[in-house]
Amino acid sequence: MRNLKFIASLFFLITTGLAISTSADVNTSRNHLIIYHMDFNSVSLREDYIKTTLKKASDMGYNAVLWEIEDDVKWEICPESSSPDAFSKETFKDILRYSRDLGLEPIPLLQTIGHAEYVLMNEKYLMFREDPKRYDCYCTSNARVRQFIKSWIKEYLNLFGDVQYFHLGGDEANVFATCAVCSKKAREIGRNRLYAEYLTDIATPLLEKGIRPGIWCDMILHNPKDLEVVPKDFIIWDWNYWDGDKTPQRVMVWNKMKRLKKDEIAWQIWNLCLR
Ligand SMILES: [Zn+2]
What we know:
By secondary structure, the chain is of the alpha/beta class. It contains 8 helices and 10 strands. A 5-stranded mixed beta sheet has the order 1-2-3-4-5. Strands 6-7-8 form a 3-stranded parallel beta sheet, with no helix packed on it. A hairpin with a 4-residue loop joins β9 and β10. The longest helix is centred in the middle third of the chain and has 18 residues, at 143-160. Residues 130, 139, 141, 179, 181-182 line the site of zinc ion.
């Protein structure tokens, strides 16, 4: 599993009506996944529309779905965060059954650092915020946050059943490591090590079951000299808006805001995309 080759690309699929969709190839000795990103970040969709979209995705050759369902399921751990249009778990399980019957492997996505607006906007979770004035980012040093996320991951696993992969998000966490506690830790051990330590901790329920965790790439590629601190158990999902379904020849290095070729970047960065 450590030699898993990962290539991801992201593009718009206008026919689906979704705001954004992702396609990714995950090549392993066992399988080859072409993943459709079902993103409920800013939209609630009807059950019949979702099923129609899943059928289209299956017909197009996709064989997996990345489910970013956010507040569109009635979660027990944070019922106050659920959308008024949220699905009951039974309804969502029926959607998952339909999806599996089409040959689409489910991959859950739970945002565990940033993009947490639908949770942190609620007064109950004010103490979970990294910045009291913002409601997008968890404080990753807060032990209660870690316990909350781990419990939520377990609730996800109960809903999804057997999965091979679980995406922990982690992108665009713009105020990560800015509170007094986190910023002190980041100065002592480095931002990437702090980021990796948190993710490794919350991934415990996954690693115990042999489920491979994943994260987006942009945060650690802000500190590209310090990549090896992320355990190779993690799949790094590269944001790539440019290459369509072709094998990428460049990697976006986010602290430079440049897409660099293999011979222009440190081998650690290139290997990050191939490991
Ligand atoms: Zn903090």
